[in-house]
Amino acid sequence: MNTPNEVFSAEEQDILSPYVTNTNRSVFVLTNLPEVIKGALFSRYSRSTLGLRTLLLKEFIQKKESKFEQIQGGGNNKKSSKNIELAIESAQNFYDRILDGYGDDSIGELGGAHLALENISILATKKVEDARIGGSPLEKSTRYVSFSEKINGEYQFYQEPALLKSAHRNLFLGTCRNLFDTYVRFTEPIRDHVRKRLPRDSKISQNAYERSVRARGFDIIRGLLPAATLTNMGVFGNGRFFETLISKLKVDSLSELNEIGQLSFEELNKVIPSFVRRADTNHRHFQDFRGFDFSQKEFVSNIADSQLGKLKPDKSELVNLIDYDSEAENKVIAAILYPYSSIPLQQIRDCVRTMSDSEKSKLIKQAAGLRGHRRHKPDRGLELAFYTFDILGDYGMYRDLHRHRMLTQERQPLSTRFGYDTPDEIEDAGLGNQYHEAMARAADAFEKIYIDFPLEAQYVVPMSYNIRWNVHINLRALIWLTEIRSTPQGHIGYRRIAQEMFRKVKEVHPTLAEYMKFVDLNEYPLGRLNAEQRQENKQTAGKISVLNQ
Question: In angstroms, rounded to a whole number, what is the distance separating the alpha carbons of residues 410 and 430?
Answer without folding.
Answer: 37
